[in-house]
Design a protein that fits this description.
Layout: H1 3-17, E1 21-25, E2 31-35, H2 37-43, H3 47-50, H4 63-74, E3 82-87, E4 93-104, E5 110-119, H5 121-132, H6 134-142, E6 147-153, E7 159-165, H7 167-173, H8 177-181, H9 197-207, E8 209-217, E9 223-235, E10 238-247, H10 249-271, E11 274-281, E12 286-288, H11 290-296, H12 306-310, H13 315-329, E13 336-343, E14 349-362, E15 365-374, H14 376-404, H15 408-422, E16 427-434, E17 437-443, E18 455-456, H16 460-468, E19 472-474, E20 493-498, E21 502-507, H17 516-547, H18 557-574, E22 578-585, H19 588-595, H20 597-613, E23 620-625, E24 628-634, H21 640-657, E25 667-674, H22 682-697
Length: 699
């Protein structure tokens, strides 16, 4: 229950429990909404009989008097203790004392009149009885519900000796009537409140009557709080003070309990980061608990109108918050409920949950009350969790993209793109191990990886994280001695090993912008990247095994057959010639028989090396089968003769330097050319090179 609702209930309870008749009137003199039990008991009408109707307790002969009093209040006047005659439901007349409190709207017009009525019939009867007869006075005096005292006044206007007390006084304080008559009020007053007496007596003397609270001390020492109504009477030519003292112990106890309850409520709300608020419409006047202002770092005086608060709501949340209030006021939603960010005094935003509802509405007036809850920690934790989920999903999606990559460089470029979405950085680089260096293979957009400087395996942050296989996280590169970068604008950094294949590094221009969560996400990324690099390398190794000869590492015949189709298509499309050079090792069987197959394998490796070193990068060298080799040379016509001469020269040089054989190694070679203009297919040109090779072998 919020503070406003609680207070409203407490006030309602106090009104119902009040000993005075309490009701409210509208400007036309009709009972508006309040008619407490005391009013019912005093006048006899039930609440449902008077609400909305003209006040029934005014006698016909008092109508003009009532209209005059009503007009005074509507004119802005208020009065207290006006004594008039009124009528009960049964037609009996009673004396009452009326006090009013006009409630005004923002334009100063009286919209409601609160009336507090005390029946003073007893007092009137007492006054009349004092004049009429001692007997009647004593009868009323002793049958009163409250303690009644009659005492003298000293020449100084102070309380003098008791002249008379009723039986309730003796019952309340424990003194006998005889003891009272030998005492004065001064002996009843608690010492701590005796200083009130001169002021009270001065008011009594000047106004003739007064009401005040005092604490009496009973005969047994018990302290009894009382509310005293005193007035000056003249009896047989002597001025006396008549005081009616009502025991308010129960009321004081209720007030203490109320205060304690409110204190506990305030403490509970503070502990729960709760604060109440109330807004009156259409004026927009707002009342906020001090705690609400303190939550934001402002003084309570900062908030007087609801716009003082709504103007601080985050621009992205304001329309949603205003819409939630509008839907509730229009009856579309049972209550107003919304979460939003609001700007604190230090400029930062804080998350709150706001819940409220209409608690009062009539005609054009509406009152909305609610409670605001500090959810900053919970909301930010939710947002962080949601951000992590989003990033993890992006990492999961990245794995699918990784698995579609067939080249390491392409894989690392994709990893850079993924990292840009997952982490907030200004620079990102992926390094792969080549020989004794960490070579950049992919970097942030706008940076060319091949122009970045490679790093030694044992140098810098990258070298250390690679060697130790441990990630490194830091807030400021300027404080890092191991940093090898020449960039002076970079601050926060991460260096994460990618298994045995390399290192991933990221840096930001903001100090401390990377946290442990970022590092964990980076390590997850590096783990997936490591697995995919291993996959690509394995696939490449298997592919090479499928297309290369394991002895010479030249392309095999299977690869040549697949490549020949592509080359033939290119020749037909662009009308460029294609040459074939078929090669066979002379006396290879003799080499195997005389020197062993191991020597034969060495000869084949040497021939493969010789061929590979003396052709163009565009040429394809193939181990065609056994000791036969084939060179396919695109866009070549007359240049084949130069290749043949160069091969023979290199072979002569090899024979002079090699000690594998005791005779000179020779090669049989046959050349053919093919182009789309020839009236034959490419296979015939290939057979021609083979035939010419065998012709050369037979010479």
């Amino acid at each position: 229950m919020n503070e406003s609702t609680n207070t409203k209930k407490i006030l309602s309870s106090l009104i119902e429990a009040a000993p005075l008749a309490v009701f409210d009137l509208d400007p036309e003199g009709r009972v508006k909404s309040i008619w407490n039990d005391a009013a019912k008991e005093m006048f006899g009408w039930k609440r449902e009989e008077v609400i909305g109707n003209r006040l029934p307790l005014v006698p016909e002969n008092k109508t003009e008097e009532f209209e005059e009093l009503l007009n005074r209040v509507l004119a802005g006047d208020s009065f207290s203790g006006v004594e008039v005659k009124r009528e009960r439901k049964d037609g009996s007349k009673i004396d009452v004392s009326i006090s009013t409190a006009p409630l005004k709207d923002d334009e100063g017009r009286v919209k409601r009149i609160m009336s507090f009525v005390e029946e003073i019939t007893l007092k009137k009867q007492l006054e009349r009885s004092l004049k009429d007869s001692e007997r009647k006075f004593r009868e009323i005096f002793n049958h009163a519900n409250d303690a009644i005292y009659l005492h003298e006044l000293t020449d100084e206007g102070l309380p003098g000796r008791f002249v008379e007390v009723n039986e309730v006084a003796s019952e309340t304080l424990g003194y006998s009537k005889e003891e009272f008559l030998s005492m004065s009020p001064k002996e009843l007053d608690a010492e701590e409140e005796s200083e009130k007496v001169p002021e009270v007596m001065e008011k009594l003397s000047s106004e003739g009557q007064t009401t005040f609270e005092m604490t009496h001390r009973a005969k047994d020492g018990t302290k009894v709080p009382v509310e005293i109504s005193s007035r000056i009477l003249e009896l047989e030519g002597e001025k006396l003070a008549l005081s009616i003292a009502r025991d308010i112990s129960d009321r004081r106890r209720a007030e203490r309990q109320l205060k304690e309850s409110r204190g506990r409520l305030e403490a509970a709300m503070e502990a729960g980061n709760l604060a109440w608020w109330r807004i009156e419409l259409p004026s927009g006047e707002a009342t906020f608990s001090d705690l609400k202002a303190e939550m934001l770092g402002y003084s309570p005086e900062r908030f007087e109108h609801y716009t003082d608060f709504t103007n601080l709501i985050h621009p992205e949340d304001k329309e949603r918050a205003m819409e939630a209030m509008r839907f509730h006021l229009e009856g579309k939603e049972k209550r107003y409920e919304v979460e939003y960010r609001i700007r604190k005094k230090n400029g930062f935003y804080k998350w709150f949950r706001d819940v409220g509802s209409l608690t009062s509405f009539e005609d054009d007036y509406k009152e909305v009350t609610g409670v605001v809850i500090d959810i900053d920690r919970r909301k930010k934790a939710e947002l962080r969790l949601e951000d992590q989920r989003t990033k993890l999903k992006e990492l999961h999606d990245a794995v699918d993209r990784f698995q579609q990559c067939e080249k390491e460089k392409n894989l690392c470029n994709v990893a850079v793109q993924v990292t840009e979405r997952v982490l907030d950085f200004d620079l990102c680089t992926f390094y792969c191990v080549e020989d004794d260096n960490l070579v950049p293979v992919a970097a942030t957009e706008g940076m060319e990886a091949d122009k970045l400087t490679p790093q030694k395996l044992d140098e810098g942050l990258a070298g250390e994280s690679f060697q130790t296989k441990r990630s490194i996280l830091g807030d400021d590169l300027r404080e890092e001695e191991r940093a090898s970068t020449h960039r002076t604008d970079l601050r926060a950094y991460m260096s994460i090993p990618i298994g045995e294949v390399g290192v991933f590094q990221a840096a930001s221009r903001q100090v401390g912008s990377f946290n442990k969560t970022d590092l964990e996400l980076g390590e997850i990324l590096a783990g997936h990247l490591h697995e995919e690099i291993k996959r690509i390398r394995l696939e490449e190794e298997l592919r090479q095994q499928a297309i290369r000869d394991p002895l010479t590492n030249l392309y095999n015949r299977r690869y040549f057959n697949e490549t020949l189709k592509k080359e033939a298509h290119q020749v037909k499309r662009y009308s460029k010639p294609l040459a074939f050079l078929m090669i066979d090792v002379n006396k290879f069987k003799e080499i195997n028989d005389r020197y062993s197959h191991q020597t034969g394998d060495k000869i084949l490796k040497e021939v493969a090396k010789l061929l590979k070193q003396n052709v163009r990068s565009a040429d394809t060298v193939v181990r065609y089968g056994g000791d036969e080799f084939l060179i396919m040379m695109p866009e070549t016509n007359g240049g084949v003769t130069n290749i043949l001469d160069r091969l023979n020269e290199e072979l002569d040089r090899w024979n002079q330097q090699s000690e594998l054989l005791d005779f000179s190694l020779t090669l049989a070679m046959g050349v053919s050319h093919w182009s789309p203009r020839q009236n034959r297919d490419v296979e015939e040109a290939l057979n021609e090179a083979d035939r010419r090779m065998y012709e050369d072998k037979g010479k």
